[in-house]
Amino acid sequence: MGGLYLLDYGAGNVRSLANALNRLGYEFKWVEKPDDILAADKLIFPGVGAFGSAMELLASKNYAEPLKQYIKLGKPFMGICVGLQTLFHGSEENPNVPGLCVISGTVKLFNKTDKAVPHMGWNEVFYIKRIDGVNEDYLEDNHHGIKQGTVYYFVHSYAVPFTDELKEWTLATTQYGKEIFISVIQKDNILCTQFHPEKSGYAGLRILRSFLQGKGIVNNNVCESFIIKNPELLSRDRFTKRIIACLDVRTNDQGDLVVTKGDQYDVRECSDGSGISGQVRNLGKPIDLARRYFDEGADEITFLNITSFRNCPLTDLPMLKILKRTSETVFVPLTIGGGIRDVTDPDGKFHSALEVAGEYFRSGADKVSIGSDAVYAVEKYLANGKKLSGDTAIETIARAYGSQAVVISVDPKRVYVDSPVNAMGHHVIPTSYPGPKGETWCWYQCTVKGGREGRDIDVHQLVTACETMGAGEILLNCMDKDGTNSGYDLELIQDVKKAVKIPVIASSGAGREEHFEKVFAETNVEAALAAGIFHRREVPIQSVKNYLKERNILVRDMVPTL
């Protein structure tokens, strides 16, 4: 018995944490029954998803009481994200569900007036508790590998506000907008992080290694040289802009899975100038490219599966294998899109979209991206008088795994009109780029089936409805800009940013470093995604980041190694 145990209560992506422990050379056991918790010498609780779901699953498996007993015994305990939040009395996320009640206080929803929620991306931590008279290297070594000024990956809508009453529990705080919350809890045998170390690159792996090696402050009461200070509210938080590498994955004519890239969604070469489509563009192997982008400093990696595997059983889907292999060596967030819908296996077995998403999460995905099915869901929502059905893929996945796990991928195209009255009731915007007949107004029509079919629904309708349904992020593509290298559609992005309070990823059109600067400066979008220019090494990721830093736009500095 004994040893290191990992508590998997059945929600979200714990494979990445398991892979991080394997990468660090540590063996571990899974908690499979309540007695395993008390048998552990060290225990990690990687909470993922909603507070209420986490507590209900802990109760259903009879884990809650042994977990509280384990902590009281003084054995090393590490909680991550919801694993931190469950130590408190309760959460505004699920007011009627009690927590473990180890720490007094309530987890609260972020204020949405000055920022996007969820808080999704890389942000700094600031010590409020430190040892007097030592340098930063010593502090990092003795604060569980957590380094002042380093950014870590957060993804949450609820947090514990810092208060004087919680000073003794607080090692570090983080500022988001004008709110300061507790990002690291440390007292006696307890270490908890609101961020995800297993998704924070090598900086995060250092924290896990330090905990496993037993370094860091163990007993606050025996260290009289602590300096404890209140965190300072900065004029500007240290939340960074994300640079995301996107890999469109499909089978080529030989049946191999390859990364490709389309020009306005056409992924085949036109080899002889005749207009006849040739071979599928092959820009590399998905796993190899994902690892390359991790090494080059990508803040996230998105896989968009653009091949239909309708005759393949769910558990044999090739993208599951790609995720499993990728998550073994890539320690930043992974998103998977394509095929997140109700499916039926060749033998007739039915799987709901929630089951499909669960398979992807267990294979290493942190978020799932829903495209065409989001459009169909919103059409039904609008036809039903804007009443939620509760059974859409968006709603069921968000309820089980949290809104931060659901991304809506939007594929719109411009429709020009000479006057708003001719837009058939759709949301129109004035444009500085006139249409073919000199039109100065346009609306953005949503498409399905990879852009092949337009629907009678506009982007404004789609994104606002999806936010209401529980989506946590918008991946905003643009068919008119795809593959052009002419820059992002700023008018579209600005309009969507005004319409929703959830984070938005700008996509389609990046061709130079200045396009990234322009989209961040003019739209305040949270992230920018690119594909072809990264695949072909025309614009390296680090060149983009260096260009942005020179213009005072905050980006993550990569920690190169362990």
UniProtKB/TrEMBL annotation:
One of its GO terms (molecular function) is lyase activity. This is Imidazole glycerol phosphate synthase hisHF. In the C-terminal section; belongs to the HisA/HisF family. Belongs to the HisA/HisF family. Pfam families: GATase, His_biosynth. NCBIfam families: hisF (TIGR00735), IMP_synth_hisH (TIGR01855). Pathway: Amino-acid biosynthesis; L-histidine biosynthesis; L-histidine from 5-phospho-alpha-D-ribose 1-diphosphate: step 5/9. It comes from the Eukaryota. Keywords: Amino-acid biosynthesis, Glutamine amidotransferase, Histidine biosynthesis, Hydrolase, Lyase, Multifunctional enzyme. One of its GO terms (biological process) is L-histidine biosynthetic process. It catalyses: 5-[(5-phospho-1-deoxy-D-ribulos-1-ylimino)methylamino]-1-(5-phospho-beta-D-ribosyl)imidazole-4-carboxamide + L-glutamine = D-erythro-1-(imidazol-4-yl)glycerol 3-phosphate + 5-amino-1-(5-phospho-beta-D-ribosyl)imidazole-4-carboxamide + L-glutamate + H(+); L-glutamine + H2O = L-glutamate + NH4(+). L-glutamine binds at residue 81. IGPS catalyzes the conversion of PRFAR and glutamine to IGP, AICAR and glutamate. The glutaminase domain produces the ammonia necessary for the cyclase domain to produce IGP and AICAR from PRFAR. The ammonia is channeled to the active site of the cyclase domain. Residues 371-372, 409-411, 482-483, 508-509, 531-532 are annotated as: PRFAR binding. The lineage of its organism: Eukaryota, Fungi, Fungi incertae sedis, Mucoromycota, Glomeromycotina. Coiled coil: none annotated. Residues 6-209 form the Glutamine amidotransferase domain.
